[in-house]
Design goal:
By secondary structure, this protein is mainly beta. The chain has helices at about 65-70, 125-130, 160-165, 185-195; strands at about 10-20, 20-25, 40-45, 45-55, 60-65, 80-85, 105-115, 115-120, 135-140, 140-150, 155-160, 175-180. The chain folds into two domains: about 10-85, Beta Barrel (Elongation Factor Tu (Ef-tu), domain 3), CATH 2.40.30.20; about 105-195, Elongation Factor Tu (Ef-tu), domain 3. The chain is built from four helices and twelve strands; from the N terminus they run E-E-E-E-E-H-E-E-E-H-E-E-E-H-E-H. The strands form two sheets. A six-stranded antiparallel β-barrel has the order 1-2-5-4-3-6. It has a six-stranded antiparallel β-barrel with strand order 7-8-11-10-9-12. The longest helix is centred in the last third of the chain and has 13 residues, at about 185-195.
């Protein structure tokens, strides 16, 4: 489990094709790996991946073809948002995040509004029902609050700190983003469906 509070920006430095997927080497940047062991989970752009090798400053993960097919941002070198899995002693600063991406959205608008930025995203139609005004959504692994919903489009206000600490500052209209909807919303829907 994760919280969606990004620990820092890392960088995919090597991509090695595998039989059915990829092996990535990721430079962790300022994120300390001192407490990370083999088999631990790290969210990379919101995707929960397992550490299979590490050095003091980098780690390797295998990414299955299934994961590649339903996410973005893992296929080549570039910046990535990183978050280590939480422990039971950690603060839950964002919201409960599984690292299981529900779908890929598309940036419709990314414009300055005062010192902040308006981020408007179009979600896949099948995810739109899970996105609620003042609810939580994860974009590229970052826990964010939804300010407005219009059909499958939703608005988020990004403060300067969030932009500074994540790769979200690099978004442009047309950019694709990994989305994970609120875990509670999915369970509520499943419970209601089971009652019918």
């Amino acid at each position: 489990m994760f919280t969606g509070i990004i620990a820092g920006v890392g960088r995919i430095t090597a991509v090695e094709p595998r039989d059915k997927g990829l092996r990535l080497t990721i430079d962790a940047g300022a994120v300390s790996l001192a407490d990370v062991g083999l088999g631990d989970s790290i969210a990379v752009n919101g995707v929960c991946l397992t550490v299979i090798a590490k050095t003091a400053r980098s780690f390797d993960v295998d990414v299955s073809q299934e994961t590649i097919d339903c996410t973005v941002g893992l296929g080549g070198p570039g910046g990535v948002n990183l978050e280590k899995a939480l422990t039971l002693a950690d603060r839950l600063g964002g919201h409960l995040v599984t690292g299981h991406v529900d779908g890929v959205g598309s940036v419709v608008e990314f414009e300055p509004v005062g010192e902040s930025y308006l981020l408007r995203i179009r979600a896949p139609d099948e995810l739109a029902r899970y996105i609620a005004r003042k609810g939580s959504v994860t974009v590229q692994g970052t826990s964010l609050t939804v300010n407005r919903v219009d059909g499958a489009q939703f608005d988020i206000n990004l403060i300067p700190h969030t932009l500074e600490m994540t790769t979200l500052k690099d978004l442009r209209p047309g950019s694709k983003v990994n989305l994970e909807v609120d875990l509670v919303a999915r369970y509520v829907e499943r419970l209601l469906a089971a009652r019918e």
